[in-house]
From TrEMBL:
<dbReference type="InterPro" id="IPR001647">
    <property type="entry name" value="HTH_TetR"/>
</dbReference>
<keyword id="KW-0238">DNA-binding</keyword>
<feature type="domain" description="HTH tetR-type">
    <location>
        <begin position="15"/>
        <end position="62"/>
    </location>
</feature>
<keyword id="KW-0804">Transcription</keyword>
<dbReference type="InterPro" id="IPR009057">
    <property type="entry name" value="Homeodomain-like_sf"/>
</dbReference>
<dbReference type="InterPro" id="IPR050109">
    <property type="entry name" value="HTH-type_TetR-like_transc_reg"/>
</dbReference>
<keyword id="KW-0805">Transcription regulation</keyword>
<protein>
    <submittedName>
        <fullName>Helix-turn-helix domain containing protein</fullName>
    </submittedName>
</protein>
<dbReference type="Pfam" id="PF00440">
    <property type="entry name" value="TetR_N"/>
</dbReference>
Length: 213
């Protein structure tokens, strides 16, 4: 790699980490490309556009950078529970990879809060779905979970699927925010936090269904 290419790669990575932090702290559309460039120490305020084009491509690059490691962790976990008929095993494959990745990032980290911000935007949510929610390892985990679930009415299954997704996105984001602020957390570490989340989602799927009048 030439010196120029190395400088370009370094600048690109600096923009990615800066954008992720600012998006997590302020919101995706509350931060301009100019602010990202300035916070990244770039004299050229058009650096974001030069390296990434539009906002969607920048968000995609951030998600893609984290998804590779999360997928690697999930593939390892799936290999360990392959063939299991326990709901909890497959819920763990959905929850623990992100928690393990966030733990490895150290404190402060921003990816959980960034993800929560992106998932509330109808356009950027599709980018997140394409880059991370559609990954082969995640699809495999969902396929492993599906036959383990109780026989629920279709509307209840859809409702609980949405609830589980909300928990997986926003619970880690709230913990990450608390850690960054130095605030107390319910669990000491990410592993224990993931255990609590797995317990909650497993209970959600197994909860009784109240019959209508």
């Amino acid at each position: 790699m030439t010196a120029r290419a190395e400088r370009g790669a370094t600048t690109r990575e600096l923009i990615l980490t800066t954008a992720e932090r600012l998006f997590a702290e302020r919101g995706v559309y509350a931060v301009s490309n100019r602010q990202i460039s300035e916070a990244a120490g770039q004299g050229n305020t058009a650096a974001v556009g030069y390296h990434f084009g539009g906002r969607t491509d920048l968000v995609r690059a951030i998600v893609r950078g984290h998804s590779r490691e999360i997928d690697r962790i999930r593939e390892r976990m799936i290999a360990q529970v392959r063939g299991s008929r326990r709901i909890r095993d497959w819920v763990a494959c959905l929850v623990r990879p992100t928690a393990e990745h966030l733990d490895a990032l150290g404190t402060p980290s921003w990816f959980a809060r960034f993800s929560a911000q992106v998932m509330t935007d109808p356009v950027l949510r599709a980018v997140m779905a394409e880059e991370s929610l559609g990954s082969p390892s995640l699809v495999h985990a969902v396929e492993g979970l599906r036959p383990c679930l109780p026989d629920l009415p279709p509307e209840v299954r859809a409702e609980r699927n949405d609830m589980a997704r909300q928990l997986m996105v926003h619970v880690p984001a709230e913990r990450e925010r608390a850690l960054a602020d130095g605030a107390p957390t319910a669990r000491a570490g990410w592993h224990d936090a993931a255990t609590g989340l797995i317990d909650a989602i497993t209970g959600l799927w197994l909860a009784p269904v109240t019959e209508g009048p």
